[in-house]
Amino acid sequence: MNFSNSLIQWYLQNKRDLPWRKTNHPYHIWLSEIMLQQTRVAQGMPYYFAFTEAFPTVADLAKSDEETVLKLWQGLGYYSRARNLHATAKYIAFENNGKFPDSYKALKTLKGVGDYTAAAIASIAFGEPVPVVDGNVYRVLSRYFGIDTDITSPKAKKEFFALADSLLPKDKAADFNQALMEFGALQCVPKNPDCGVCIFKDSCVALQQKKVDVLPVKLKKNKVVSRYFNYLIIKDGNGNSVVQKRTAKGIWHNLYEFPLLETSAATDYDTAYSLVEQYDFGFKILNIKPLHHEVIVHKLSHQHLNIRFWEVETAEKIAEALSPKTIMNYPFPIVLHNFMERLWQNEQKSSIFEMN
Question: Which positions fall inside the HhH-GPD domain (predicted)?
Answer without folding.
Answer: 35-186
